[in-house]
C-alpha cells in the first residue's frame, strides 16, 4: 500500500518560488521584453511569438524585411518559394540553412505586418531600431551579414546605401568582406534578376563563396 503524501504549504511555496526566480539568459530576457512590448500586445495576446533566430554561435546573419503569413503560421522563416530560391543562391541545404549555428535570421519586424494592395505591408516603423541592435550585440561570432532587399539595406547601411536597390547591389564589392547586399529572392523579382544578368554572374558566385568560406 502506497503511503499518503502530505502536502506541505511551506515546501510547495519554496519550490514554486525557486521555479519562478530561475535566472533567465540574456536571450530569454530579450525575447520576453519583445513579447511584453505594447507594440506587440495584439500578437502576444493571440499566442503569436516573435519569429527570429539569434544563436550566439551563429556565423552568418541574414537581415530581411518581415516574415510572411506562411512563415508566421508555420513558425519557420523562409519556408516558402523565396526561401527555396535563397538556399539555391547560397548553395546550402535546408539542414544547413536551419542550423542556428550557421545562420541567424533577424527580420526588420518579427511579426507578419499584414497585407496591402501591392503585397505584404512593410515592417513597422521603429521596430528594427528598438530590437535589432540589442540582438546583434548577442551575436559575437557573425562573420558575414547578408542584407536581403531594400528595407534591410536602407536600415543597415544608412547613408552608405546607394540611391536605389539596384545600385546598392551593383556596388556589393564596396561592402565586402563582412557585408553583402542582395535582391530579395521573391518570385516577384524574377524579372529583375533576368534584366540584371550581372547579379547571377557576379553577385551570386560571391555570395556562395562567402557563405561556404564561413560554414564549411
From TrEMBL:
This is Uracil-DNA glycosylase-like domain-containing protein. It holds the Pfam family UDG. Residues 51-208 form the Uracil-DNA glycosylase-like domain. It comes from the Bacteria. It comes from Lacticaseibacillus thailandensis DSM 22698 = JCM 13996. Transmembrane segments: none annotated. SMART domains: UDG, UreE_C.
